[in-house]
Write a structure and sequence with these properties.
Helices cover 36% and strands 26% of the residues. Helix 7 runs antiparallel to helix 8. Bound molecules: adenosine-5'-triphosphate.
Length: 231
């Protein structure tokens, strides 16, 4: 589903990302971990054509992301609050996206009903603008928006950050359910090793822009990651 080939990003002399090759098959839940500055967000931004690579390429479903727009129809993402419209309420924002995606009111209700537990009565039906939401509630709006329009690929940058413990558990359940039912290919970056190892089939560890581990064995992931991070 996603193919990365000799992907490199350099700012002046500093090489911040250098990934030889990565192949993420359809329906995989791909976890990305690494210390601050390892290059996780840079990699996600290049996959979404928000940052131009110094070299190499990214393809989604056979489409090179820098060379066309078709991949956008099957891709959803929430990286940070810049992707939201701060002057709208969450309801206004979801309505705007509903029109863009050509969804009916019933489609939107069906979609948002999956988020009832996660929203915890703090997101919908309020007069609060997105700019005034707490960081956790902003994240919930962004994730619900990223999953609109039946995407086949969804990228989430630090989805558990700023969520309270109940919301983290609810989000994990929601991602696992979406993965099962909608067969979405998820790419999830996280500093939370417990959550990411629980939901992902594969974990890639970045260090200074390079892939230093590519783990598929669920039973061994946590031990290996703990050993690395306690180093
Ligand atoms: N526009 C830029 N100009 C110069 N350096 C940049 C720029 N954007 C990112 N970097 C550098 O690229 C490196 C990778 O940053 P990135 O945000 O991708 O890391 P990360 O793994 O997401 O970190 P974190 O866990 O802290 O979110 C960092 O050293 C960062 O300072």
């Amino acid at each position: 589903m996603i193919k990365i080939n000799s992907l490199k990003k350099q700012y002046k002399e500093a090489v911040v990302l250098d990934v030889e090759s990565l192949d993420i098959p359809a329906t995989e839940c791909f976890g990305l971990v690494g210390n601050n500055g390892a290059g996780k967000t840079t990699l996600f931004r290049m996959i979404l054509d928000l940052v131009r690579p110094t070299g190499g390429s990214v393809s989604i479903d056979g489409m090179e992301v820098t060379k066309g727009e078709e991949w956008k129809k099957i891709t959803g993402a929430y990286l940070d609050e810049h992707m939201l419209l701060a002057y709208l309420t969450p309801d206004e924002y979801f309505q705007t996206l509903r029109k863009i995606y050509g969804m009916t009111e019933a489609d939107l209700e069906a979609h948002l009903s999956k988020f009832t537990e996660l929203f915890n009565d703090e997101v919908r039906g309020k007069k609060k603008y997105i700019r005034d939401l707490s960081k956790g509630n902003l994240k919930k709006v962004g994730i619900a928006a990223a999953l609109m329009g039946k995407p086949e690929v969804v990228l989430l940058d630090e989805p558990f950050e700023n969520l309270d413990p109940s919301s983290q558990i609810r989000l994990k359940k929601l991602i696992l359910k979406e993965k099962e039912e909608s067969r979405i290919t998820f790419l999830i970056s996280s500093h939370d090793l417990n959550h990411v190892t629980e939901i992902c089939d594969r974990i890639v560890l970045l260090e200074k822009g390079k892939v230093i581990r590519d783990m598929h064995d669920k039973a061994a992931m946590m031990t290996e990651l703990e050993a690395y991070f306690t180093g």
